[in-house]
From TrEMBL:
Domain ABC transporter: 3-237
InterPro entries for the chain: AAA+_ATPase, ABC_transporter-like_ATP-bd, ABC_transporter-like_CS, P-loop_NTPase
Stored Pfam families: ABC_tran (PF00005)
SUPFAM superfamilies reported in the protein's UniProt record: P-loop containing nucleoside triphosphate hydrolases
Entry keyword set: ATP-binding, Nucleotide-binding, Translocase, Transport
GO molecular-function terms, A-Z: ATP binding; ATP hydrolysis activity
PROSITE patterns: ABC_TRANSPORTER_1, ABC_TRANSPORTER_2
Secretion signal span: none
Nucleotide-binding among keywords: yes
CDD domains (alphabetical): ABC_Iron-Siderophores_B12_Hemin
Source species, domain of life: Bacteria
Species classification: Bacteria, Bacillati, Bacillota, Negativicutes, Selenomonadales
Protein name per UniProt: Iron-dicitrate transporter subunit ATP-binding component of ABC superfamily KpLE2 phage-like element
Length: 260
């Protein structure tokens, strides 16, 4: 499935945030959205997940406006992992991951649902947490549970909002390797918001850099991750270093003058 955002404008209480944002993500592609705090990344993802209704523009799933689609169909097609998972109900880990199967359930949880959930929990190495209540987990453990819930949902399109922000370096790599695998091996479509420019650089096909609610740069990672773009958008100086593993970004210092 492909997902397209066309001229989306969004305002919270008539305070404009997104300004004419357009992007298209093809089946089998990983697109990372980067940008400073408050740039509108989460707002954009919520518009794509239909959790927010844009005042202008349209989001299309396989060419169909999502505004008119049935909730259950949308839930089957799109999996969304929110950024803020602090306020959780005291469900167990197993119950939470099983909730990912909800769009697929007919009457009750079936063998196939348990099979998928068990497989996903094993894969993300959280099976030993199965009976633990969610509100007693560490930030990183909780984050993995929400990634697991989205995987269990088996949607065509994944929307991840900073899925690795609480994870240690090993788990960050695991989650991004999983994201890449979803796209390459299973042909899923993945949109991921991430602050780590090196992870974005390494694991995405396309990078979208947001500045104050508008797309500042978009394209291949090496076209977007440049010293100039990063200075203009984040107001920091960086060095782009070449290595045998590809380029990487070394942040140097915050600049005093506003980048305008
Ligand atoms: N529910 C809300 N009501 C009013 N304003 C909001 C709401 N949610 C976000 N905003 C504002 O909209 C702007 C964009 O917020 P958003 O959460 O999309 O940013 P972000 O790019 O995801 O930032 P971060 O990197 O910190 O997660 C911010 O200025 C924020 O204060
Ligand atoms: Mg955010």
């Amino acid at each position: 499935m492909n997902i397209a955002v066309q001229n989306v404008c969004f305002a919270y209480n008539s305070h404009p945030i997104l300004q004419n944002v357009s992007l298209e993500v093809q089946k089998g592609q990983v697109v990372s959205i980067v940008g400073p705090n408050g740039a509108g990344k989460s707002t954009l993802l919520k518009c794509m997940a239909r959790l927010l209704k844009p005042q202008g523009g349209t989001v299309y799933l396989n060419g169909k406006d999502i505004a008119g689609q049935k909730s259950r169909e949308l839930a089957k097609a799109m999996g969304y992992v929110p950024q803020n998972i602090r306020d959780v109900f005291p469900f167990t880990v197993l119950e939470t991951v099983l909730m990912g199967r909800k769009p697929h359930l007919t009457w009750d949880v079936g063998d196939e649902d348990f099979r998928v959930v068990t497989q996903v929990m094993k894969f993300l190495e959280i099976e030993e947490l199965a009976e633990r209540p969610l509100d007693q987990l560490s930030g990183g453990q909780k984050q993995k549970v929400f990634v697991a819930r989205a995987l269990a949902q088996q949607p065509e399109v994944f929307l991840f909002d900073e899925p690795t922000s609480n994870l240690d370096v090993r788990h960050q790599l695991e989650v991004f390797a999983t994201i890449k695998q979803l796209a390459v091996t299973e042909g899923r479509t993945v949109i991921v918001v991430v602050h780590d420019l090196n992870l974005a650089n390494r694991f995405s096909d396309t990078l979208v850099m947001l500045k104050q609610g508008a797309i500042y740069a978009a394209g291949k990672p090496e076209q977007v991750i440049t010293e100039d773009n990063i200075r203009e958008v984040y107001n920091v100086s960086v060095a782009i270093m070449e290595s045998i593993y590809g380029n990487y970004v070394l942040p140097l210092e915050p600049l005093k003058e506003s980048a305008g």
